[in-house]
Amino acid sequence: MNSFEAKMKILIDLQDCDTRIREVQRKIEEGPIRIRALKDGLRDVAEEEREGADQLEAIKRKRRQLEQDIDDFETRIEKSKIKLSNIKSNKEYQAALKEIDELGAQKSLSEDRVLELMEEIERLEKRSVILREKRVAMEKEADLEEKKIEKEMEVFQNTLDELEREREHYCQAIDRDLLEKYNFLMKHKGGFAVSPVVRGVCQSCHMGIPPQKFNELKRCDMLMTCPHCSRIIYWGENERFRFVAAESNAGMSE
Ligand SMILES: [Zn+2]
Q: Are strands 194-198 and 232-235 parallel, antiparallel or unpaired?
């Protein structure tokens, strides 16, 4: 490996390190989002439970009202029956009988409605038990999941600290001018400053390098950039760089 290749190797390693830093940072950013999603899920199920309880309460109120109505009908029917015994004319007697029948019919309708409501209450009470169990189970699960996420975040943070130390080590080994160029390209070229050229094609912008330039690149003795995307390029088929890439890829999967 000549001295230029050694320089390029550090640059490739630095880019690989930066790629891993971005991945870990993304995972760290996902932590609070994952925790928020858990809390949203919990809030939804608690809301559903509360709505169910409100609905149940409203139906129970309605039932109490109907039972009150039934009592009132009974009182009125009793009164009408007493009145009936004091009536002298046949016409008045018929009218009072009709009133008793009507009150009886209304009372009966209310009783039917109460039965319907009792079925509804039973259904809603069962549902409320299910929803409560669901919420309690979800709370337990979310609690465990949150702890798990927090632990993962701790590991990611440690990895990030390590990678940043690694990055610092590469930066110190690179000439200031080259490092500035690298950082500038990283910032303006979507986080990829260094690109391999394979079979004459830049692997970042997928454009061909002129044959003359590609031949110069194969000599691996000077800094070159892609004429299309301006990234720093290196000969990707160079066995020594491929070894570097394979080594750093192995590092990534650890
Ligand atoms: Zn390019």
A: parallel
